[in-house]
């Protein structure tokens, strides 16, 4: 059986991991490639690098990171953050990334999803969707790191990105992101039911129970987490063992 | 002279990760874009991502298809990865029917609709035969897959590994000097690298 994937996510700015990584056993916990190689050895199934560098050099930092990661990481890895054109995607994939994630640019120009999928294959195209519950009780899509409301219905957008050729959806709950109170189960479940492509649940993981809940209750294919791994609250191996003990298929 | 491994580049996907995988296990491998250069290698890897028909068109257009057949006929080791495995078969049903290299008799068909397609992620390979390629890799190990079509050898004797995903399919096939794996060893962490290392040993004839 296909294993559920555990995906550590690293935020990278100007070539350094930001947002608190507290490893004592790394030479340089700020180096994304060193951290990534560590997670590979520890049993992570895939890795996500979100490059949040805000400068005109933005494109080059992603290409450089994609290239460096390939020297040390022998599991699939995704590069995302501000990717806006087919040329960006081409350069990042050519440098060695397996997939790119696109978010704001896909909302602004949905044809980018189709063009990327036709050119490089759907399996390379992860569409990141940031969702948040509105006062009227519906989930809506946000862009620009969750700051900009678009008014677009989340479930409609999820169906649309699949139709346009996305290979996977990385779904982040902006209500839960950084809270460590658990994934947004109803939202994730609703998206999983709305599409037939793999869904990566993201936002809110605070303990191993949360990972299991998301997998058991939503139908998601992968769970993404940052701080529980970066702060060494749990190792990847512990997470896998725990999920396995609950009868969830994982790669041990 | 140390033996060399070539990675055939015919414009289908990124080959750098395969090159880096070999490098990681201390085997020198290089990307080769010239069909006339294939004969220089002691071992050859045929990788590939994308559509079967486009790949065959590229191989034929570059003269790489004939060069690959000549290479295989020379008795030296070849490993097809993902689409590269599929290309070894007689034909594929992807977008109608496309003829393959015809080295392994059989077809390439679409995964059934009852499972999510493409098949993306870590799945189990059960060893169907004891082969050098899988030395140190126990049956039931997981590897990273990304594909929508799978290989169906006409004769089961070609199947060396199987995987369940909607159907049971040949996730590894081969005999003699021709081998193919549907998964990506270069993306399958330590066990995947072990397979690249084994291939390197098969090339040098050291066991």
Description:
The complex is a heterodimer of chains A (252) and B (207). In chain A, helix 2 (58-72) runs parallel beside helix 3 and helix 7 (185-194) packs parallel to helix 8 (208-218). Chain A is built from 10 helices and 11 strands. With 252 residues, chain A is an alpha/beta fold. Chain A is globular. Chain B has 207 residues and is α/β, with parallel strands linked by helices. Chain B has one domain: Rossmann fold. In chain B, a hairpin with a 2-residue loop joins strand 12 (167-175) and strand 13 (178-181). The two termini of chain B are 18 Å apart. The mean pLDDT of chain B is 94. Chain A binds chain B through residues 1-3, 5, 40-41, 43, 45, 70-71, 74-76, 93-96, 98, 121-123, 167-168, 196-198, 221-222, 251, and chain B through 14, 16-17, 20-21, 24, 49-50, 116, 118-124, 142, 144, 146, 164-165, 184, 186-190, 192-193.
Mean pLDDT of chain A: 93
Largest sheet of chain B: 9 strands, mixed
The run of helices and strands of chain A is EEHEHEHEHHEEEHEHEHEHH
Name of the level-1 CATH class of chain B: Alpha Beta
| Percent helix of chain B | 10-25%
Percent strand of chain B: 25-35%
Number of strands of chain B: 13
CATH architecture of chain B: 3-Layer(aba) Sandwich
Structural class estimated from helices and strands of chain A: alpha/beta
Order of helices and strands of chain B: EHEEHHEHEEEEEEEEEH
Share of helix among residues of chain A?
25-40%
């Amino acid at each position: 059986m296909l294993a559920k994937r555990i995906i550590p996510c690293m935020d990278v700015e100007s070539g350094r991991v930001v947002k608190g990584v507290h490893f004592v056993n790394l030479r340089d916990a700020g180096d994304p490639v060193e951290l990534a190689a560590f997670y590979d050895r520890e049993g992570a199934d895939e890795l996500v690098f979100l490059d949040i560098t805000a400068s005109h050099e933005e494109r080059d930092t992603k290409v450089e990171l994609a290239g460096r990661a390939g020297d040390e990481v022998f599991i699939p890895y995704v590069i995302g953050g501000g990717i806006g054109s087919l040329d960006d995607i081409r350069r990042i994939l050519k440098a060695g990334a397996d997939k790119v994630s696109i978010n704001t640019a896909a909302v602004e120009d949905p044809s980018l999803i189709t063009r990327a999928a036709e050119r490089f294959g759907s399996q390379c195209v992860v569409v990141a969707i940031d969702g948040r519950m509105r006062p009227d009780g519906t989930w809506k899509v946000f862009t620009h790191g969750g700051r900009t409301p678009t008014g677009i219905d989340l479930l409609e957008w999820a169906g649309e990105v699949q139709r346009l050729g996305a290979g996977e959806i990385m779904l982040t709950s902006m209500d839960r992101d950084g809270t460590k109170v658990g994934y947004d189960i109803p939202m994730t479940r609703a998206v999983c039911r709305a599409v037939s492509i793999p869904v990566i649940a993201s936002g809110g993981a605070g303990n191993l129970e949360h990972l299991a809940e998301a997998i058991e209750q939503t139908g998601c294919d992968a769970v993404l987490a940052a701080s529980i791994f970066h702060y060494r609250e749990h190792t990847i191996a512990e997470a896998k063992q725990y999920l396995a003990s609950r009868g969830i298929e994982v790669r041990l | 002279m140390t033996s060399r491994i070539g990675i055939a580049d015919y414009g289908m996907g990124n080959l750098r990760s395969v090159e880096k995988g070999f490098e990681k296990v201390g085997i020198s491998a290089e990307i080769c874009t010239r069909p006339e250069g294939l004969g220089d290698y002691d071992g050859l890897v045929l990788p590939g991502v994308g559509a079967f028909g486009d790949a065959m068109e590229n191989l034929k257009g570059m003269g790489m298809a004939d060069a690959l057949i000549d290479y295989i006929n020379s008795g030296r080791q070849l490993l097809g990865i993902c689409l590269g495995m599929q290309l070894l078969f007689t034909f594929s049903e992807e977008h109608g029917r496309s003829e393959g290299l015809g080295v392994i008799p059989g077809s390439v068909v679409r995964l059934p609709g009852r499972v999510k397609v493409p098949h993306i992620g870590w799945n189990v390979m059960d060893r169907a035969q004891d082969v050098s390629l899988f030395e140190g890799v126990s049956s039931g190990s997981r590897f990273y897959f990304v594909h929508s079509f799978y290989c169906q050898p006409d004769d089961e004797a070609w199947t060396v590994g199987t995987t369940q995903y909607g159907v049971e399919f040949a996730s590894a096939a081969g005999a003699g000097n021709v081998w193919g794996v549907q998964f990506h060893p270069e993306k399958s962490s330590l066990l995947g690298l072990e397979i690249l290392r084994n291939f390197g040993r098969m090339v040098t004839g050291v066991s």
